[in-house]
Amino acid sequence: MDIKNTTKGFTNFFSGSSTFGKYFPQTLTVFVIIFIFGYFAYNAQVNMDNRGIDFGLRFLGEEASFDIQFSLIEYSGASSYARAYLVGVLNTILVAVIGIFFATILGVVIGISRLSSNYLIAKVAEWYIEIFRNIPLLLQLFFWYFAALRALPLPKEAINFFDIAYLSVKGLYIPKFIWTNFDIFFYSIIASIVAIIFVFKYARNQQEQTGKRIPSFLISLGIIVLLPLLTFLIGGVSLSFEYPLLTQLSKTIFNYIGGVAIIPELMALALALSLYTATFIAECVRAGIMGVTKGQKEAAASIGLTPGQILRLVVMPQALRIIIPPTTNQYLNLTKNSSLAAAIAYPDIVLVFAGTAMMQTGRAIEIVSITMLTYLSLSIAISIFMNWYNKKIAIKEK
Amino acid sequence: MYKYIKQLTSLLAVFVVLFAFANEAMAAKKSKTLKNTIKKGFVRCGVSQGLPGFSNADASGNWTGVDVDVCRAVAAAVLGDASKVKFTPLSAKERFTALTAGEIDILSRNTTWTLSRDADIGLTFVGVNFYDGQGFMVRKDSGITSTSQFKSGLSACVNIGTTTELNMRDFFTSKGISYEPVVFEKADEVVAAYDSGRCDTYTTDKSGLAAQRTKMKDPDAHIVLPETISKEPLGPVVRQGDSVWEDIVRWSLYVMIEAEEYGINSSNANAMKASENPQIKRLVGAEGELGAALGIGNEWSYNIITQVGNYGESYKRNIADTGILPDRGPNQLWTKGGILYVAPAR
């Protein structure tokens, strides 16, 4: 709104022809922006020419010839730089998703705990927030990686979880799932989800029309357990496990081979990001809950709702409208903060692409631009999703 | 057209120099970097963030090392004072950008000379001040004494943005060994991770391994394996497109090596002015006009030798006496069984 007012001020200032006054500032702004960016581009071009550097994206197709520690897709040193970029982006998304998931759960729990009438719980939550919020993230990251995870034993003395998973300084080794006919199993999951959506729709209709409550949660649970189970029994789906095996590599060097390795770099990064961001989300949640007027809770209590129902049915739906916008910011922060990964050897886009690939090709301008665009796209995607969700839960005036 | 004019001027400049009509301002005019350096009064030099023997700062901020000495030699040659250097510590990742963007004028940071770096990204390597090769370090108690004992499943700690990352891949792939590369941005983090048992082996240039070993909690608990898996000629780098500056840096390095060859060192340089040998006299500036050809004062080589010393002195002071690599190996003069062989300064 402010912008419009300023424009109006401009219009008045220029006065005279109203069309001129209306369009002139906008046109001028556009030209100034084009000029500034054009100048930057031109300047970069001239300087690069002077130094014998050419500009182009052809390098993306060349062989990367370096290995990456951890990848969600097939990758080897013979793959292209474009493939290495994709590995980096996926690793960034992976740690962002894990971080957002745990930060949200932890943040909601801590946020509600801070408002607890139990003195101990409220104080513990408060101290947690004050400590983790006020220490720089990079230091926390170093703490978890170099101090905490380093205290783990070597593979030979790994912490054993029921002989199926092992935790050591080299990471958490868990069994690998080996599927036959995985596609049938996958379709059964999709079918279950579709069925559950129908059940919920039907249950709501029934309740609205007849007032009868259908135990939709139990039915859904039954569907999602039984249908995939059926594929095992008659669909030819089977599952076996490949367990990590302690292997001796030399006199004192041991390592687990086989299974799936969750590298300590990922654990430390996810841990640090979740614990740090959870404090901010907790404060958003607290603000949201406190933003719901006391009268709402009292009114809900007066019609006989239990405290759990009050929170779930009355307070939370209203609080969410206050919580979502600032929490979106925290999700964006978490995603961008994941670029600190490079400090502890987690192969995210900054380490792999803006690090190794940039060094090997020397294409600083191209690679930094691509990396910036990638973060921009990730952030915009998160924003779009959160704005959609925000609209969905907003008050719908009928 | 512009290129022709430029070439013609260079040709003309060469003729002018040949006929000894040159003055220093001529070359200085041609070299923007030289002009700026003289104007600023110091040489801007990019070094490592701390690699003993090559470039390392002590508690009071004094830089020492063979890479540092290259920059000091240039300062002695151009400004007559080896102390007039501003050092910028750079990570492996930042180094080339800092140079091409003009933040520094010499990159003397144990940088491997490769074709793609030389040709592709606007850099020019001027020479080699240390012949190195990549090796592996393991814990002594691991029982590994040779890379032939490596098995699939090893994890290797390595520094980002180095040729090391590529050589390591070539090495393991050619042997059919699958390994886990753990890549860090700073050398200190690599060492910390290796020291704590995150990695089974630490790989970088052998001189680097030897230097980092001295920094570890218990240096004797680690050994450097005998195999060398790559050629790593390390040397100073300048920006492409300033050939006068390139020549100054190249010949500042060469003079240090040539001085050793002719037995000139920081303590006898003055006496050598009276030598019978014309080549020695040229090196200490008592004869000839070598400096003018580079657009700098004729005392340039004398200043390098007296203020920084010859290559042998620099090596002894920084690498041998500190216990990093007492044996000069390939970094010995060609006359003494090494491969240090530079073009004659004449």
Give an overview of the whole structure.
The complex is a heterodimer of chains A (398) and B (346). Chain A has helices spanning 2-14, 18-50, 81-114, 119-133, 137-148, 182-210, 216-234, 264-290, 294-302, 307-337, 349-361, 364-393, and strands at residues 159-161, 165-168, 171-174, 176-180, 238-242, 245-248, 254-257, 260-262. By secondary structure, chain A is of the alpha+beta class. Chain A folds into 3 domains: 2-50; 81-175 and 243-393, MetI-like (MetI-like fold); 178-240. Chain A has a 4-stranded antiparallel β-sheet. Chain A has a two-stranded antiparallel ribbon with strand order 4-5. Chain A has a two-stranded antiparallel ribbon with strand order 6-7. The longest helix of chain A is centred in the first third of the chain and has 34 residues, at 81-114. The radius of gyration of chain A is 27 Å and the shape is globular. By secondary structure, chain B is α/β, with parallel strands linked by helices. Chain B is 41% helix and 16% strand. Chain B has helices at 2-18, 24-30, 32-40, 66-79, 95-100, 115-120, 163-175, 187-195, 206-213, 243-261, 269-272, 278-283, 290-294, 300-307, 311-320, and strands at 43-47, 56-57, 63-64, 85-89, 106-107, 123-125, 130-132, 134-139, 154-159, 179-184, 201-205, 222-224, 232-234, 237-239. In chain B, the strands form 5 sheets. In chain B, strands 10-9-11-8-12 form a 5-stranded mixed β-sheet, with helices on both faces. Chain B has a 3-stranded parallel β-sheet with strand order 4-1-5. A two-stranded antiparallel ribbon of chain B has the order 2-3. In chain B, helix 2 (24-30) packs across helix 3 (32-40) and helix 4 (66-79) packs antiparallel against helix 14 (300-307). Classes of the chains: A alpha+beta (398), B alpha/beta (346). The A-B interface holds A 48, 50-53, 65-69, 77, 146, 150, 154, 169-170, 247, 249-253, 255, 257, 264-265, 342-345, 347, 351, 355-356, 358-364 and B 92-93, 96-97, 100, 116-117, 120-123, 139, 141-144, 149, 151-155, 160-162, 165-166, 168-170, 172-173, 179-185, 189, 192-193, 196-198, 200, 239-241.
